[in-house]
Every structure is written in structure tokens, then in C-alpha cells.
Design brief:
CATH class of the largest domain in chain A: Alpha Beta
Largest sheet of chain C: 3 strands, antiparallel
Number of domains of chain A: 2
Structural class of chain C: mainly alpha
Number of domains of chain C: 2
Mean pLDDT of chain A: 85
Distance between the termini of chain A: 48 Å
Chains: A alpha/beta, B mainly alpha, C mainly alpha
Largest interface: A-B, 54 and 38 residues
Strand content of chain A: 15-25%
Number of strands of chain C: 5
Radius of gyration of chain C: 24 Å
Shape of chain C: flat
Mean pLDDT of chain C: 79
Order of helices and strands of chain A: HHEHEHEHHEEHHEHEEEEEEH
Number of helices of chain A: 10
Strand order of the largest sheet of chain A: 3-2-1-10-11-12
Oligomer: heterotrimer
CATH topology of the largest domain in chain A: Purple Acid Phosphatase, chain A, domain 2
Chain lengths: ~375, ~500, ~250
């Protein structure tokens, strides 16, 4: 074991998931660079838990994979942080500290991820001070940062400050064979003009998850058109990843866990073999699959939401009910391993809990294999 | 009872005693009684003098302990039995005064809910006088150690709050461990034993230090039973207590039965709860309010009528282990070693000997969420069980409050319930006053002496005090980020 | 919606009238000059339900000629009207001005628009049931009254629940941030031993714990109107759930 040759830096052959995990586990154990271990162990524990091997052991992963991944993507990992809902630090220190904790976690990853994706709702009330504070804290990340906008960032000034700090909310980029699209999926029909709301009143209306005065989220016709154009001509075997703050499907309208034109957006994406959607907003472990589109929710750093009373997708394995006495429980950050075929293992790095992996195999088998461990305590 | 002897004087006396023992052929333990009178329960049976390794006069020089600044000797209490203990005979005399006889009908001791008692006492070890007497004899018997210097009572000393008032405990050959000795007082009310909960019951716990190479050092249970077997009084007592020849498991049972008589829940605070409003002062009353409120102690140290000791029986990383260097690298070593040997004994060794000790509960469960997590200790009698935390690294209760007030020590596994408390100095004094009011009245004088000693020490140094952190001017994870800005452009 | 407005308005009018009647300083306690007898006659008339002293005039030098500034008895609200304007119009303008400055007078309507609220149980089956005893004779008005009053308290609770300032939060946190529509509050499981409180808790104990810690405010007294309203709202939202006290 100790004589195991190290991987050649810079050259990554396409490997099965099994070999990759074994490799990482032992590399973490015996590598000279010890700092790697804890994050590897986190992933390993998560992966093992997902693989059905008891999470308390550190047996090497021996999972039979019926569908080993092959494809165009040069396998990579990215980290995510989301939904920090910052106030000014003189008002609320907890949320600020939690985002700092998330940045610290991601900085401790070894190897570092290719990039860090921020899932939206950086500010709580869209104020310039809040967004600037968030941008400041995120500057501490070692890896490159990519961001998307959430409703809390947008509805005070309709995105003016956001654009200034982070650029256009809708954009796309390519990474190692995957085509990534970032949408502003929190577009709401105007409810504020007829009510003569001030900008802050508009923002506070949107800020209330259960506030029925606001409109449902949508992507909107303009962006759908943009998306069609952006994807035009790409072959169907191009792996697609979509980043969107709202889930791009319809879960629970009363809490805007909802995208009104979800079907239209899904129709545009339908022709591709591999589409993975990552969304924020829901502050919980959330998993769905509609046709060939896989949906994964990001954790929040600030607070967890309970599960909606109805509409929960079948594939979702709920996280255990968070303990109110621990402000970090049910919160966290995480990472995503993108396989050669563009499908992903999503790792939830829950604070003060063992990590949970929702694997590519689990998604492909529609929940038959690799089920993440079942929670002890569901939402009331 | 603290004897202020110089270390060389003690070493000299110890050497003399060893030589006497060798000459007289008397078991070493009984030669160590200071005044030379034979212990009341000991027959002058044949015994071997201890091995030569215990005889070194330089053995009192302790290697550096990881605890922050504890003295070579226990901080207070004890005597000049080996390792600073009060001699066994004197301890036993105190026990006679301190403990109450068992209830006649075999019911719960006073102050313990009968239904709860039933739930916590194992069916095969219902306490009775025979079992308690046997357990007591074993508890105070240094013959159960390899060099005959260490009994349970050495580190769980009647005169030192049933602990040893050291940062970490000292075992045979003057070897220092990595963990602070928890008090035996009220220990029966825990759901698990040891700081990392690796023993499920008192019965389990009692056996492990006997076999631990740096505590009592017996090579295996057969060696223990050989010692027991050579003493006909033991054989007789085991027969009476358990109706069979002595077994190692029964050793654990008997000690547990004795420990279940150590009920010390009669403090001024209890009298206050019962209606005597003058039992504790205003500071302590204010402290009790803070304990349940702003100071958040109750979140992990809850006291209820059924379980009054102040623990949730769970394991939390509050950051004490994070003060040890390389803490974050240790998980790797643990997994390597435990993948080879996952027995309880291996866990026990790792817990105390190696620096894996700092991983706490993780060594037992291998849950990533348990890295650096230790059991919420009881707050009963906390006034007389300094120093504090799993490594004894915190010297006074004021320092304990400083630690919590600043939000513990940030690390990747810090329990999210630990956060800065913004307590003022007055509020800290009030919580400390409350904590001192939790000491059983039978230790009132000791408690008072400890209060004065700690107060004096805290007046000179408060190493953990951090007002900026406590008042949230600098946030816990901010420290870790500072200096890491890399000027990354924030663009998509 | 209109109905609610009317109720709000009439409740307001009653309140204003009561204030006027009750306030001994209505004629000038806020520093307004005592009106001349003539000016008073000019400015006042029976203004509907707002009887009593009615609006007082204030003579100031800066008024346009032939304009009168009329001050409401709250000492703050005023309108500037041409002389000779009928009293009902003045009262109407004062009302509009007062409403503009006190938007929370329509709080109930607004709260209902923002947040779905469970309706109270329907008691109409009891109407006209029992003859021969006065206490048992339920009328439709009774049933309507019970419903309105009950739901009003629950609505008030929803207002506090969703409002960090009302809760006294010093960190900008309101209950709905973790409990949208009071989800996951599980009031049907109380009383139960709450380990982290070290004792048996009632719903209000948990509410107070949340106020002290996540919300970082001051605990409310058990009979504080806000606490009572919060309990009412939380319990109302869990309508139909079986009680299971002690359930964890």
C-alpha cells in the first residue's frame, strides 16, 4: 500500500468512480501532504455513506457500478456556498460568521476545487453594504469564484448593485467539457407598482418566504430566448449544467419553491443527454429527477428551511430535522464531483453532521442504488 | 488534606518504605501508609514487593503535561501516597463519614428518582452491602496495579474531589496520560463513561484503567485475577457478593456497585430549589438565571429532577482540543491505526497514550461529526474538581467562562451551539458563584478553600480572556480567514 | 377587502372619537392656541361619528388668506382648507390624512393578504340549537363574532411572527425565517421535556427560548399580548393535527 505510485500531476485518465474513490482514500491516508486528509475523509465518508457501506467504517469503497461513467468531460470538482443572507455585521454577526466558516471549509479542501460557485441570496435585504460585505468575505476564497443571483440580492434595486459587483446575472461558460449556464430565475411579475411600494417594502415582501403578495418566480420569456440561443447548435451529447436560484421545477408554490415557467425551461433542455440543475433558495437537502434532468439543491450557510408539507420529490432523502439549539445545524456548504458523462455526485457538507453524498448512481437508478442514509428525524 | 512536602522529601520517604517493604516481605501497598499502622482491612498476607521500576527516586519529576500550567503536584488536596494521593487508609476513613448506607429495601438512594434508578442499574448488579463492601475494597487497592502504587483512589481521591486535581493523571512509573480524571462523585448518573464515552457502563469503565499500560498497567485480566485469587478475603467476598469465584467482570461489577453509593447531590443550590431562599447568595441566583439564559450553559449541561448532574450525555466539540497543534492532522493517524486494531483496549490505549486523544469521540465512532468532541461533563461538585476539560487545560472556573464567552476555539468541527456570549465580568462572576454553589455540603470547607484558591489565581491571570471575541467585535471564524485574502477578483 | 377596510375605518373612528372625548387637552394640550369662539363655530359641525369636541381651529399668521388650518385632536394631524368648507369634508380630509400617516390601521387586511391563515372552526351548526335557556341560545351574530375575534388574534400573532422589530430582535431575525407559515413549530407536542431547557416546556417556553437565542430579543412575559397572539397563531396554523404531548 505504501508503495502505491502517486498520480502523475496534470494527467488525468478517465477512470471509473470506484477506482477514483479508492485512489483518493488511500492517497489521503498515505500522501505526504497530510492536510488533504480531512476533506478527503469527508468526501470519502460521504461517498461511503452513499455507497451503502456503514458510515462508521473506513473500508475501502467497493461498490459495483453497473454504469461506469465515460464521456467527454475531464472529471473535476467544484465547491459551493449558498444563501448566506447577510445583514451588516453590526446588526447580525451570526450570518457573517457562518459565511466565514464556509469560506474556511472550502479553503481547507485539498486538492482545491476548480472553482467555487455561490448560489445566490448573498445579502438579506439587497442593500449595498450587505452585498459589499459578502463580496469582501468571498474574496478570501483561494479558488476562483462564480456567482448567481437570488431574490434577496435583487429586489431592492433590481440588481443594480449586483451587476456592479458581479457582472451580468445571466451568462454561460464552459469548463472541461461541460457547458454551464447561469440564470436569473427569480424574475417576478410586477406586484409593487400598483401597491405603490417603496423599494424596501418591495424587498421585504420578497424576503418573506411565505409572503403571498409577491409573484411566483420565473425565468421569463427573454431569458428563455437567450437560453435557446446559447444552446443552439450544441450537440445533444454536450453535458449541460444549469445554475438557477429557484429550483426550475414546481415543488411548493406557497413558499416560492417554484419556477412558473419550469416546463418551458425544461423543454429547452430536454434534448440533451445529460442535464444537471443546481439551485439555491430551498436551504435543505433536495433531490429530483424529471426525465433526463437531475436537480440538486444547495445548503444554506444561514439557516435551514423545513420540508414543504406537500410536493416533495420522490428522490429526495430528507436531512434530519435540525436542532434549533445549534444555529449551524442543517446548514453547511459542499462540493460536486462532475463525472466524465457530465452527471454528478453531490456532496452535502453539513456542519456538525456526517457528510451526505447523493451520487450519480443513485440518480441514474432512480433511487434503487446507493441510497444516502435515511434520517432519524423528519420535519414535524 | 494537603501535605506540603518537597518532592525530594517524599521521594526519600518512598524509597525508605520500599526498602522496608522488601525487607519485611509485606505487600508494597501496605508499606506506604505514612504512619506505619497497618490498614484496617488488610491481612498480612504474603506478597511480593513491587518490581524495581517503581523504586526510582527520581520518579517524581513529571514529564511536561499538555495541560496549561498545572503544578507538578496536584493543585490542592491529596497527600504523600504515591502520585500525590491521600493514603488509602485515610481515604477510607473519610469515606466512612461521607457516604450513607444503602436503603434497606434495595430502592433508590435519597434524591434519585426510583424509576430512573431502575433504568440505570443493570439487572445483574443490584447493589447490596456485600457488593458495595467488595467494590470499596477494590477501589482502594493498589495491588491491582502493576507496581502496586495505583488504585482507583489514586486518581479518584476522596480528599481531592474524587479526582486528582491534576491536568492529566499520573499512573504507574509516573507516566502521564492525556486525559483529566473525571470525578467519581455522581458518575453513576452518566449514560456513558470516559470523556469519549467509550465505556457504556460503570462496570465497563472500572476494568479498563486496570489494564491500561500507563494507568494501572496490568498486562491482562488473568494477572488481575491472579492477584485477587491470592487473597482469601477477596475470594470470600466475591463468593458472598456474586455467589461465584472471582471473575474480572465481577471486579468491574463490584467497583460499580460501590460507585453507585457516591451520591453527592446535597448542595446549597439544592436547598435553594427546595425553598430555602437564603441557601445561596444573590450572585449565585443571578448566575442560575444566566446559566439558563444568556450564558447558554443549559443547552448541554441541563439539570432535571431525574438527572440532576448537568449533562446531556452527548459529545460536543467546543474547541478545547483545537488548541493542540496538529489537531486537524490527527484524524488521519486515527483511521490508520484503528483500521488495524479496533478493539476496546486499542481504543483505550489510543485515548490516553497517543495524541489521538485529542480527537475524542471520533476515536470511538469514527464519525467525522465527532472529531474533537468530548462528553458534556457534570457540573455538580465542579468547584472541587479543578482543573477542567478533557485535558485539564483550563485551571479555574473563571477561565472556563472565558473560554465559552469568546465562543470556544474555532475549528472545522466546532459545535455550532458554541458562540460568543457577550457576558460582562459581573455576569461571569455570577455564573461562577452559581457553579460553586453546586458542591455537596459535605465538601463545604474544601469548596470554600478551592474558591479562594481559584479566585486568587484568576486574579493574576486570565489567559483565555478575549473581550473582542466575546463581544463579537472579531468573529470566531474571522481569525481563521485573516491573512488569507488573495486579492481574487470577484467576477463570474 | 373593502369590508375589512370599513371595519378598520370604523374601528379607527371609534378610537379617534374616544381619544377626543377622553382627552382633556383636546382643545390645545399640544400647544395649539385656544380658538376664538367665532373660529370654532366656523370650523365645526356634526362630523358623523366623531362627536364630542370636534376639530379645533388654529390661527397662524402664515395661512393663506381665507384658508383655515384644522388640527385633529391628536395634536399632529392637520389639513389646510379654504374657509367655508363643510365640516364633513374637513373630517373626511382629516381622516384620509390620519390614515396615510398610520398605515397599520389596515394591518389586519394587509396581514391576511400576505400570509395564509387557517380559518377558525365553523360553529354555525350551533345556531339556534337550544331553546329554553338563555346561555345556550346561539345566534348567527354570535358565531360571526367568535370567528372574527378569534381570527383577529391569530392574525395579530401572524403579524408579530413575521416582524423582527415587533419581536424585539436585535439581529433582524423573525420567526418566519425558520418557520414559514409556522411550519415545524409542532405545538401539538407540548408539553414535553425539552432536553436543552432541562425541564418540561410549554409552547411559550420554546417561543421565549427562540426569542432569546436565534432572535436575540428579550423574553416576553406569559401574558404579554404579543406572546398570547403568537401562541394563537402557531396553534391556529396547526389546526387539525392530533395532540401528542411529549412527542419528540
Amino acid at each position: 500500500m505504501k508503495d502505491r505510485p502517486k498520480k502523475m500531476p496534470g494527467i488525468k485518465s478517465i477512470e471509473t468512480k470506484h477506482m477514483e474513490e479508492r485512489e483518493e482514500l488511500f492517497r489521503g491516508l498515505y500522501d505526504l501532504d497530510r492536510r488533504s486528509f480531512l476533506k478527503v475523509s469527508a468526501a470519502a465518508l460521504g461517498a461511503i455513506a452513499g455507497a451503502g457501506v456503514t458510515p462508521h467504517s473506513f473500508q475501502p469503497v467497493t461498490v459495483a457500478h453497473a454504469q461506469p461513467a465515460t464521456g467527454k468531460v475531464q472529471q473535476f470538482r467544484f465547491a459551493y456556498i449558498s444563501d448566506s443572507h447577510l445583514y451588516e455585521r453590526s446588526l447580525n454577526d451570526r450570518f457573517v460568521n457562518a459565511l466565514m466558516r464556509a469560506v474556511d471549509d472550502v479553503n481547507a479542501m485539498d486538492p482545491q476545487p476548480d472553482f467555487v460557485f455561490y448560489g445566490g441570496d448573498l445579502a438579506q435585504l439587497g442593500q449595498a453594504k450587505e452585498l459589499e460585505l459578502g463580496a469582501q468575505i468571498l474574496k478570501n476564497l483561494k479558488a476562483p469564484l462564480k456567482v448567481m443571483v437570488g431574490e434577496h440580492d435583487w429586489y431592492l434595486d433590481m440588481g443594480e448593485k449586483w451587476r456592479e459587483l458581479f457582472g451580468p446575472p445571466t451568462y454561460s461558460f464552459d469548463h472541461k467539457g461541460v457547458h454551464c449556464v447561469v440564470l436569473n430565475s427569480v424574475v417576478e411579475k410586477d406586484f409593487w407598482t400598483e401597491r405603490k411600494l417603496t423599494p424596501m417594502q418591495r424587498m421585504q415582501t420578497v424576503a418573506g418566504l411565505d409572503n403571498g403578495v409577491q409573484s411566483p418566480f420565473s425565468v421569463g420569456a427573454d431569458q428563455r430566448k437567450w437560453l435557446e440561443n446559447d444552446l443552439k447548435g450544441k450537440p445533444a451529447d454536450t453535458p449541460i449544467i444549469v445554475f438557477s436560484h429557484s429550483p426550475l421545477y414546481k415543488l411548493y408554490k406557497n413558499w416560492n419553491f417554484w419556477t412558473d415557467d419550469a416546463e418551458e425551461v425544461q423543454a429547452i433542455l430536454k434534448r440533451f443527454n445529460s442535464v444537471v440543475v443546481f439551485h439555491g433558495h430551498t436551504h435543505q437537502m433536495l433531490t429530483n429527477r424529471i426525465g433526463n434532468i437531475h436537480f440538486h439543491g444547495f445548503l444554506s450557510t444561514a439557516w435551514p428551511w423545513p420540508y414543504a408539507p406537500q410536493g416533495l420529490p420522490e428522490l429526495t432523502v430528507q436531512m434530519s430535522r435540525p436542532d434549533p439549539f445549534n444555529p449551524n445545524d442543517g446548514c453547511g456548504n459542499g462540493s460536486v464531483l462532475v463525472h466524465p458523462d457530465g452527471l454528478v455526485d453531490k456532496i452535502y457538507n453539513l456542519w456538525n453532521r456526517n457528510p451526505v453524498t447523493v451520487s450519480r448512481t443513485y440518480m441514474l437508478s432512480r433511487g434503487a442504488k446507493d441510497k444516502p442514509s435515511v434520517p432519524v428525524r423528519k420535519s414535524y | 488534606m494537603s501535605k506540603d512536602k518537597s518532592s525530594s522529601g517524599v521521594a526519600h520517604r518512598r524509597l525508605r518504605q520500599l526498602i522496608t517493604a522488601a525487607v519485611l516481605g509485606v505487600p508494597l501497598a501496605y508499606a506506604l501508609v505514612v504512619n506505619g499502622a497497618p490498614p484496617s482491612a488488610a491481612p498480612a498476607g504474603p506478597g511480593k514487593p513491587a518490581g524495581a521500576d517503581a523504586a526510582s527516586p527520581a520518579a517524581t519529576t513529571n514529564p511536561a503535561s499538555p495541560a496549561a500550567g498545572p503544578a507538578e503536584r496536584p493543585v490542592s488536596g491529596g497527600g504523600d501516597a504515591p502520585h500525590g494521593a491521600l493514603p488509602m487508609q485515610k481515604q477510607q476513613a473519610q469515606i466512612d463519614r461521607l457516604t450513607k448506607p444503602l436503603p434497606a429495601n434495595g430502592g433508590a438512594p435519597a434524591g434519585i428518582d426510583p424509576a430512573y434508578w431502575k433504568a440505570i442499574v443493570p439487572a445483574d448488579n443490584a447493589p447490596n452491602d456485600a457488593r458495595v463492601a467488595l467494590g470499596r475494597r477494590l477501589y482502594f487497592d493498589p495491588r491491582l496495579s502493576k507496581d502496586g502504587t495505583v488504585a482507583c483512589a489514586t486518581c479518584h481521591d476522596v480528599s481531592r474531589g474524587f479526582t486528582d486535581r491534576r491536568g492529566t493523571s499520573e499512573g504507574i512509573g509516573d507516566k502521564l496520560g492525556q486525559r483529566n480524571a473525571p470525578t467519581t462523585l455522581n458518575a453513576f448518573l452518566f449514560s456513558s463513561q470516559f470523556w469519549d464515552g467509550r465505556a457504556a457502563t460503570l462496570e465497563d469503565q472500572a476494568k479498563l484503567p486496570i489494564l491500561n499500560p500507563i494507568e494501572m498497567g496490568m498486562p491482562d485480566d488473568k494477572a488481575v485475577m491472579a492477584v485477587i485469587g491470592k487473597d482469601p478475603e477477596y475470594v470470600r467476598m466475591f463468593q458472598t457478593a456474586y455467589g461465584r469465584a472471582p471473575t474480572f467482570d465481577d471486579v468491574g461489577r463490584a467497583i460499580a456497585a460501590f460507585e453507585r453509593t457516591l451520591v453527592f447531590l446535597d448542595s446549597p443550590f439544592d436547598r435553594f430549589l427546595a425553598g430555602d431562599l437564603k441557601a445561596i447568595d444573590d450572585d449565585a441566583k443571578a448566575g442560575w438565571v444566566l446559566y439558563n439564559g444568556k450564558a447558554r450553559c443549559v443547552s448541554c449541561h441541563q439539570m432535571s429532577s431525574s438527572s440532576p448532574i448537568g449533562t446531556d450525555n452527548r459529545f460536543h466539540n467546543i474547541g478545547v482540543s483545537a488548541r493542540h497543534k496538529d489537531f486537524e492532522n490527527l484524524a488521519k493517524k486515527a483511521l490508520e491505526a484503528l483500521s488495524k486494531d479496533n478493539s476496546k483496549e486499542a481504543q483505550d490505549r489510543f485515548a490516553l497514550q497517543t495524541d489521538l486523544s485529542e480527537l475524542g469521540r471520533f476515536v470511538v465512532t469514527k464519525n467525522r461529526s465527532d472529531i474533537g468532541a468530548f462528553k458534556s461533563q457534570q457540573v455538580r461538585n465542579v468547584g472541587i474538581t479543578a482543573p477542567y476539560m478533557h485535558d485539564g487545560s483550563i485551571a479555574t472556573l473563571w477561565d472556563v467562562l472565558d473560554h465559552y464567552n469568546k465562543g470556544g476555539e474555532p475549528n472545522p468541527f466546532l459545535d455550532g451551539g458554541i458562540e460568543p456570549l457577550a457576558l460582562t465580568e459581573t455576569e461571569i462572576n455570577q455564573v461562577v458563584a452559581f457553579l460553586f454553589s453546586l458542591t455537596d455540603s459535605r465538601f463545604a470547607e474544601e469548596n470554600k478553600a478551592e474558591f479562594e484558591r481559584q479566585k486568587k489565581l484568576a486574579a493574576t491571570r486570565r489567559p483565555l480572556r478575549d473581550e473582542a471575541a466575546a463581544n463579537r467585535k472579531v468573529l470566531p471564524f474571522e481569525h481563521r480567514l485573516s491573512g488569507q485574502t488573495n486579492g481574487q477578483k470577484v467576477t463570474p | 377587502m373593502m369590508k375589512q377596510d370599513v371595519i378598520g375605518k370604523s374601528a379607527l373612528l371609534l378610537a379617534v372619537a374616544a381619544a377626543c372625548v377622553a382627552s382633556a387637552a383636546c382643545g390645545g394640550g399640544q400647544g395649539a392656541e385656544r380658538p376664538a369662539a367665532n373660529a370654532q363655530k366656523e370650523g365645526s359641525s356634526g362630523a358623523g361619528a366623531a362627536s364630542g369636541n370636534g376639530p379645533q381651529t388654529v390661527s397662524t399668521a402664515s395661512l393663506a388668506p381665507n384658508n383655515v388650518e384644522v388640527l385633529l385632536c391628536d395634536g399632529k394631524t392637520k389639513v389646510n382648507v379654504p374657509a367655508g368648507t363643510p365640516g364633513t369634508a374637513i373630517a373626511g380630509q382629516l381622516m384620509a390624512e390620519w390614515m396615510r400617516k398610520n398605515p397599520s390601521s389596515t394591518w389586519e387586511a394587509e396581514e391576511r393578504e400576505r400570509h395564509t391563515l387557517q380559518p377558525a372552526a365553523d360553529n354555525s351548526a350551533l345556531i339556534g340549537q337550544v331553546e329554553g335557556q338563555t346561555y345556550g341560545r346561539i345566534t348567527a351574530q354570535d358565531v360571526a363574532l367568535w370567528k372574527t375575534e378569534t381570527e383577529r388574534v391569530a392574525t395579530a400573532g401572524s403579524r408579530v411572527f413575521h416582524n423582527a422589530e415587533e419581536l424585539g430582535s436585535t439581529v433582524g431575525v423573525s420567526c418566519d425565517m425558520c418557520h414559514p407559515h409556522a411550519a415545524n413549530t409542532h405545538p401539538e407536542t407540548y408539553p414535553k421535556f425539552q432536553p436543552q431547557l432541562g425541564r418540561v416546556a410549554l409552547l411559550r417556553d420554546m417561543i421565549n427560548w427562540c426569542i432569546e437565542h436565534p432572535v436575540r430579543g428579550k423574553a416576553l412575559a406569559s401574558d404579554d399580548p404579543r406572546m398570547r397572539a403568537l401562541e394563537a397563531y402557531i396553534l391556529a396554523q396547526r389546526k387539525g393535527k392530533a395532540l401528542e404531548y411529549g412527542k419528540h
